[in-house]
Amino acid sequence: MKSFSEFQRIYLHRDRVDMRKGINGLSALISDMEMGDLMGSNLFIFSGRRKNSIKILYFDKSGFCLWQKRLEKDRFKWPKKIDNEVVELSTEQLGWLLDGLDYTKMKPFESLQYEAFC
Asked: What ranges do the domains of the chain cover?
């Protein structure tokens, strides 16, 4: 799989998805929901009812790639208190999600810029 930083946008589908879907089924869902440019440099993340596995779909120059991670004992921390069906993540937030952290509660320090240093 490519590095997350190589993708322009990362979209997470908040609602559960039938995890039996493959590339064609997930591509159709992306198109129907107008989640983003399917053939662009985007990642699309899906999970089922149990939240113990995720699928990530992306297009890689010559075809589609489907990546899956299944947890044996735990569950992914999925956003609950968000009204949108599609949530845009940063590369940092995706890393937190894959590591089992609740990315909605984690926030990095704010970047500061000073005009003059005393």
From this structure: 4-98
